[in-house]
Amino acid sequence: MAKQVAEVEIHAADSQEHDDDDIDISVDLIDDGLYLGNLACARDQKALESLKITHILTIDLVPLPRSTLARPNLTFKFIKLADVPKEDLISHLPESIDFIKQAIESGGTVLVHCYFGVSRSAAVVIGYMMQKYGLCYEDAFTLVKSKRRFVGPNIGFVAQLRLFGHMQYTVNRDDPRFKQFRLKMAGQKLKQVKILPQLFADLVKPDPGLIRERPDPIVYRCKKCRRIVANQSNIIPHIPKQVKIELAKKGIRPPPSKLTGLTCAENGQLLIEKLKSLACQIMDGEEKVIEDANGVQEEGSSQFPDGYTETHMVDESVSRDASAACRLMWFVEPMAWMRGVTSQPGGKLHCPQCDHKIGSFSWVMGCNCPCGQKVAPAFYLVPSKVEWSNIVQNVQITV
Fold first, then answer.
1. CATH assignment of 12-166?
2. What is the pTM of this model?
3. SS3 for 176?
4. Which of 127, 305, 338, 370 is the most interior residue, by most CB within 10 Å?
């Protein structure tokens, strides 16, 4: 790991490439073959030559100018991203990290930059360091900040980097936390354009009531007509609010990797085990039945614009543990049988066979689970209207 900090201070006015930009070049050596800097550095030929840069990764709203892209012996990659908490950084992390790794493995030197080299590019470099050294976000941030003192990813990027670590430094589309994150991103887009963009079409899952070669053995059926409306894989679990309160009191967090020697993923699993234990204590003996709940909150009440926090969602390994996840309402993914989910911000959910009301959905405002936890977006089935079953033969043909 590199122990030196390389700083180049060259006035942009000294280069015709910078036109009217009056910002100084700022760049720092973060790791072997890896520099983190600003736009001025990426546009300055002398700076690039002095640092022996061979690859440039741009994370910005616009690519580098043609005069820069036309330079020989340089390899470029452009990621279009705005520096706002609601932007989808995590989906770009794998390709960005691969670009950095391949450049360094080939003997090259990489410059990762955005406009100032503070948030977007810093977030990508932190993600790279997390994966390379098996670090949790906090340790990777501290390491990068020790090399470039003014790095500071926005709050949404920070949450996504933590999620990236808990998914073992990859993007697992089956992870319920990632599903909820993408649903929140989709809800924000649907609010703007009044229809679900094609980019998020994969979020609407196939109808589980149709015959499949390998049906899920655990299903959820309309109590009135026994029509299957969800599989276990469609369930998105959440931690009860009472558990969150206890977690806050006890201060349960993933232990820092520099103290435990564990990877971020192992730290996340340790947290999950603590959640299971604590949830069992709290939920034990609490068997009240809530017939229905439509606790819709006002728009904007969610504290987490990024759609992910460690104490909000539970890992997929916990989702099948009824004592750890809330059982008072079943939150699910949007599915093909749900009328209006691709064109309406919210509405009621009716059984596709008997038209009996079995739940509701809200892309933007979400709803309160009876346990008190806010979930947004929310697609939920009410336990009094839907029954759980593990009989595979209940899978039926629907039209």
1. 3.90.190.10
2. 0.76
3. helix
4. 127
